[in-house]
Specification:
There is one protein chain. The protein is built from twelve helices and 19 strands. The protein is globular. Strands 4, 7, 10, 11, 15, 16, 17 and 18 form an eight-stranded mixed beta sheet that branches. Strands 1-19-2 form a three-stranded antiparallel beta sheet, with no helix packed on it. The chain has 456 residues and is α+β, with helices and mostly antiparallel strands. It binds a DNA duplex (22 and 22 nucleotides) through β5, β8, α5 and α6. It is found in: Nucleus.
DNA sequence: TCTTCTGCCACATTTGAAGGGG
DNA sequence: ACCCCTTCAAATGTGGCAGAAG
């Protein structure tokens, strides 16, 4: 492995990252049980953050003494998630009781695989909604052409270097090695999982931005799509139906190329930060299994308003009713038009980014975020091709990294065909490289080594 | 038989081009 | 010319449903 690396990158840190598929390396990357002095106790009164990711001090395997100042006063317990035998609980909890209601737990564990910059913190924006779904066992529809996630994965980031540029992207990885089925209103395991198709990474539209820009407003991954089409050519994330997954957020600090200020490149893999929110776990399905999940989606997803009770499908085949509905819509638009003069109403009537309307119908007043939150997707050109083109021209300097990683790329079967036609091959695509990098310290099947943060 | 998947549908939002006023 | 707002229509995002597929 070492011989594949360019000299300047064949650092000790690279060693640690590249070899983590083994148990030995896990001990290097994660604090092991000897490092902890607090045992996980679910009955404890300790309450930790539930809306924000916990801070995990990262200690370089070979430089512990250099990084002690990064350790937070919080103690951690390293727990190996037991293999769940039934239910849809969250890892460790299944040890104690099946079908855990995650919303009642005062704990939240962070399932992070790497956090190289301890200053970076990430908060899941719509945590309340995620938790309501998690309590029901969230299902995400996957389709041949790709389906968006709902709720939308939306985060706000703090602690970035304001002037440095970052690459921010998402992927979705298996939570366990099981295939599930829904039977008698319950999820249960039916067998072993199908192999996961790795390497599909979704770069955030604002990825080519400075830390200041990225921290300015929440980052929404609303346009990410999930598919079950293994031959997908659109760069969507490929999942297996009836399998359990969790999204991951990756933040990589970019490094300026020395001879060209406008080109940036992914830094050493040391700069990778990964964040996982257990509340965002879901089972991929081609059709909803639990009607409570369906109901909650309909009630909160603006695109599904047509299925809401009072204007919903009970009347869909009633022509008169449909016409009346259309007239109502016309009236509504007229009203909207009527009050366009006031700035406030103007904003409300303007198109919003959709996921902002996640308030249940019973809740009348939207939060101030409806008005204040900028649409982070504005500069998005809505095409992976353009994104990669952007990276090719402005962000990614192939000369800097093509060589060390090109040896890794062949281990990844997937290539962006659209990307290939743009110039760089999969071996020089920064996101393919990132995928290879990420997989080296976190194979989807070995990442069941969660941390449970426990307040002191 | 049973479970899972697909295509099409009605209803809704979003987008972006075109037009108008300042 | 420019910018901001409005309008409008096409594109796109939803879950239901029936039947196909396995």
């Amino acid at each position: 492995m070492l011989s594949y690396l360019q000299p300047q990158l064949a650092s000790e840190s690279m060693l640690a990252i590249c070899s983590t598929s083994s148990d030995e390396s896990n001990k290097l990357t994660y604090p092991n049980e000897e490092d902890t002095n607090v045992h996980f106790n679910p009955v404890s009164t300790g309450i930790i953050t539930t809306s924000s990711s916990a801070r995990i001090p990262y200690s370089h395997p070979h430089h512990h003494h250099h990084h002690h100042h990064h350790r937070s006063p919080v103690s951690f317990v390293y727990g190996h998630a037991p293999t769940p035998t039934y239910g849809f609980g969250f890892g460790f909890y299944e040890d104690m009781s099946p079908f855990v209601d995650t919303t009642r737990s005062p704990y939240s564990f962070i399932h992070t695989t790497k956090r190289s910059d301890p200053n970076i913190d990430v908060k899941l924006e719509n945590m309340d909604l995620w938790k309501r779904f998690a309590a029901l066992n969230l299902e995400m529809i996957i389709t041949k052409n790709g389906r968006r996630m709902f709720p939308t994965f939306k985060v706000s980031i703090t602690g970035l270097d304001p002037t440095s540029k970052y690459i921010v992207y998402m992927d979705v990885v298996p939570v366990d090695n099981h295939r599930y089925k829904h039977h008698n209103s319950q999820w249960m395991i039916t067998g072993a999982a199908e192999p996961h198709m790795p390497g599909r990474f979704y770069p955030h539209p604002d990825s080519n931005s400075t830390g200041a820009q990225l921290m300015k407003q929440p980052l929404s991954f609303s346009k990410l799509k999930l598919t079950n089409n293994t031959t997908d050519q659109n760069g969507h994330i490929v999942l297996n139906s009836m399998h359990k997954y969790i999204p991951r957020l990756h933040i990589i600090q970019a490094v300026s190329s020395s001879n060209n200020d406008t080109k940036l490149s992914m830094g050493p893999l040391d700069n990778v930060n990964i964040f996982i929110f257990p509340e965002t776990q879901f089972i991929a399905v081609t059709a909803y299994q639990n009607e409570d999940v369906t109901r909650l989606k309909i009630d909160n997803n603006p695109f599904a308003k047509g299925f809401r009770e009072n204007n919903g499908h009970a009347n869909r085949k009633d022509v008169k009713s449909v016409k009346r509905h259309i007239d109502d819509e016309y009236d509504r638009r007229l009203k909207c038009n009527d009050i366009y003069g006031t700035p406030e109403s103007s904003k409300r009537c303007k198109s919003s980014s959709g996921e902002e309307d996640q308030t249940p119908p019973s809740r009348v007043v939207p939060t101030s975020s409806t008005i204040d939150v900028p649409d982070s997707t504005t500069p998005f050109t809505d095409g992976y091709e353009n994104q990669f083109h952007l990276h090719q021209n402005q962000l990614y300097d192939p000369n800097l990294y093509a060589s060390p990683y090109s040896r890794f790329a062949p281990t990844y079967p997937f290539t962006y065909s659209t990307m290939a036609s743009m110039g760089p091959t999969s071996s020089t695509n920064p996101f393919t490289l990132a995928a290879a990098a990420a997989s080296r310290y976190s194979s989807p099947y070995t990442f069941s080594a969660p941390y449970y943060q426990h307040s002191n």
